[in-house]
Structures are given as C-alpha cells and as structure tokens.
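A reminder from the course coordinator: this example appears on the midterm review sheet, so study it carefully.

Given structure:
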C-alpha cells in the first residue's frame, strides 16, 4: 500500500507563469505515493508555465471546498511558486483564509519558491523559512520577522517551506514523511 493512500492534497498555482519544475515533480511524487492531488488557480482556466507547459487546473481557488472529488479539509495545502505567484497568489484574498483554516485544523500548510511569501502574509511562518534568494520574498519574510534559512527545506511542525525547484524532491519527501501513517 502506498504511504499517502486516502490523503487529499491541494496545490494552489499561479494562473500563469507557474514553475513547472516545482509542480510536475511534486505532483508525480505525491501521486506515486497514492495521494489525490487537486490543483487550483485563481481563475481555473488553462495556465501557461514559465517554460510554456500548459495545464488546466482542476478548478478555482475560491471553490476549494466544493470540489466533486473532495469535501472538507485537505490533509495538506501547498502554495506553488513561479514568476506569476506575486501577481496572482500573493494578494489573493481567499488563499490566506484557506491556509489559516487548515493550519488551525492541524493540517499541513506548505509553500515552495515564490509561494513561501503567501505563508508569510498569512502569518503562518515562525523564526525561519526556506525560500529563494528573491528580493521581494526576503522583504515579505522581514516584514513578519522571519529569517531565510540556507537549508533547501525547513519544517516547523506542520509548516513546510522549500527554496524552489532545486529543493522539490526534498520538499515532497518532507510532505510525504509528515503525512504518512506512523
């Protein structure tokens, strides 16, 4: 039996300019372990990645709780990065609510690459977080008094952060380990 059978994971992606080097390996690793992975974006329409990969998300972020394949809380909510994250995810009014709601329900919340800033804006990061060396992300971390870690992945209880595509394998492994039955 796969480690994540029966687990539901929500991945929020930018509506365009998502990082396919984060998304595709992450989805593949989670699905290989048996997780049901749902990908949502702001508008739910076809998204074009930074390398021109086209995907159609499963729906819109605003409809996170009325998906035909899952009702209720997800076992993990992941915010993906990419050049489009600052424009379509950082100021999304619904995403911080989803993250906070899941955090309070003792579920995993995670961000990778430029998606880490959404966790900072939601007030879910403490002490340090792994994030890319991006000036705007560093500003977001500084505003909430969080230091950028040099580690590829940082885990503080149920909050997992990753630097980006270079750390996607380790990031996925941290999610899988946390969600796997003990």
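Designed residues:
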């Amino acid at each position: 039996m796969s480690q994540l059978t029966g687990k539901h994971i929500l991945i929020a992606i930018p509506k365009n300019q998502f990082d396919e080097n984060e998304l595709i390996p992450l989805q593949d690793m989670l699905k290989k372990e048996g997780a049901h992975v749902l990908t949502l974006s702001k508008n739910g329409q076809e998204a074009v990645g930074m390398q021109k990969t086209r995907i159609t998300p499963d729906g819109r972020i605003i409809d996170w709780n009325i998906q035909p394949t899952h009702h209720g809380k997800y076992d993990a909510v992941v915010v993906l990065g990419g050049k489009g994250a600052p424009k379509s995810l950082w100021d999304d009014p619904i995403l911080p609510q989803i993250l906070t709601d899941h955090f309070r329900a003792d579920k995993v919340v995670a961000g990778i690459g430029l998606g880490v800033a959404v966790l900072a804006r939601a007030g879910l990061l403490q002490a340090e977080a792994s994030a890319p060396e991006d000036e705007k992300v560093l500003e977001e971390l500084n505003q909430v008094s969080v230091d950028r870690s040099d580690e590829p992945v940082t885990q503080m209880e149920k909050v997992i952060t990753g630097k980006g595509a270079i750390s996607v394998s380790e990031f996925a492994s941290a999610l899988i380990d946390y969600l796997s039955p003990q």
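The mean pLDDT is 94. The chain has one domain: 8-179.
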